Amino acid sequence: MEPHRALVIEDAADVRLLLCEVLQKSGFEVWEAATGQRGLDRVDEVEPDLITLDLTLPDLDGIEVCRRLRTMTTAYIVVLTARLEEADRLVGLEVGADDYVTKPFSVLEFRARVAAMFRRPRTAATSEGRKPKTLRFGELAIDEESREVRLSGRLVDLTKIEFELLAILASNPRRVWERETLTRLVWRTEWPGNDHVIDVHIANLRRKLGDDARSGRWIRTVHGVGYRLGE
C-alpha cells in the first residue's frame, strides 16, 4: 500500500519543518511550499491526500488559497492559523477546509486530528458493511458510491465532512443524532473537540442545500440534543 501524500503550505520555515517532520513520522510522503501560489502549483504534481494550509501567507490570502484548492482537489485540508477571531474559523471552514488548528498548536493533538480523518468511514453505510446505494428524500438524492449529492437534479458541491454528516443523518432519518455522536462517527475518535465545529459544518451544509435553521426542510435542529434529517 502506497503511503499517503501530504502538502504543507506554510511560509514560516520553523513551522514548516515541524509539520513536515510530524507528518513524515506519521508515514506520509511530504512536499512543501512557502507561498500560496507555489502550493497551488504543486497540487497537480503531488496529488496530495492531505494539505495543511497556513492562513497568513506572503503572497495570497489563505482563505482564497483554500477556496482555489477545493476546486482542484478532494484532499483533506487542515487550516493552521494564529488568528483567534471566530469569523476566521467560520470562513475557513465555509470555503472547504475540513478542520482547523490554532497556533501555537499541540503536536499530539495535530497528529490525532489527522489520524482521525483517515480512520473515519467514507460513508455511514459502508462503515457498517452495507453496499453503497442512493438514498432519496424527495428532491434530495445522496449517492454513497460516487459521493454525489443532487438536489432537484442539480449537483451540490460538498466538502468531505459535509458529505459524511449528510450521509450519517440520511442513514436513519428518524433518529436524532447528538453532536457528540456525529463527532465520533465523522472523525472516528473519542476526542470531544468543540461541538461548535459540528454546528459550523451543519450551517454550511444547510446553506448549500438552500435550507436554514428556522425552516429546517432538510436538516432539523432538536434543541439541546442535535440534528435529524427531515423533509
Automatic annotation (TrEMBL):
Residues 132-231 form the OmpR/PhoB-type domain. GO terms for biological process: regulation of DNA-templated transcription. The keyword Phosphoprotein applies. Keywords: DNA-binding, Phosphoprotein, Transcription, Transcription regulation, Two-component regulatory system. Residues 132-231 bind DNA. It holds the Pfam family Response_reg. The modification 4-aspartylphosphate is found at D54. This is Response regulator transcription factor. One of its GO terms (cellular component) is cytosol. Residues 5-118 form the Response regulatory domain. CDD domains: trans_reg_C. One of its GO terms (molecular function) is phosphorelay response regulator activity. It comes from the Bacteria.
